[in-house]
Design brief:
alpha+beta; five-stranded antiparallel β-sheet; 5 strands
């Protein structure tokens, strides 16, 4: 699940988070085509990644994997502000689709 989320199928179709540590700069393009640039706040593979997205009005993404009862769950947050409602709705829809394709409910 971690490799799908952070790798070529997910957040880093181009670029990589491998070896990134707190304070590292990153530049990736998601498999949905979104260019993301910013700072790594927390990178604890294979559990948690938290990043800023400076080129999206300093948005924040945080994803954490937890296993409970033999099932792995992704707790995902995308914090955005200052976007036009239509742009925000399109981004939310695109990201929801990306996560559902990566990690379909079983």
């Amino acid at each position: 699940a971690w490799n799908k989320f952070t790798g070529p199928e997910g957040l880093a179709a181009r670029g990589s988070f491998e070896g990134a540590s707190e304070g590292s700069r990153y530049s990736v393009t998601t498999s949905a085509g979104d260019a993301l640039e910013g700072e790594v706040l927390l990178n604890l593979p294979p559990k948690t990644l938290t990043i800023t997205i400076e080129n999206m009005n300093d948005a924040l993404i945080s994803g954490t994997f937890e296993t409970m009862g033999g099932t792995t769950y992704l707790w995902f947050s995308l914090g955005m502000w200052g976007m036009e409602p239509d742009a925000e709705a399109m981004l939310r829809e695109r990201w929801s689709g990306l996560l559902q394709r990566l990690l379909p409910a079983s």
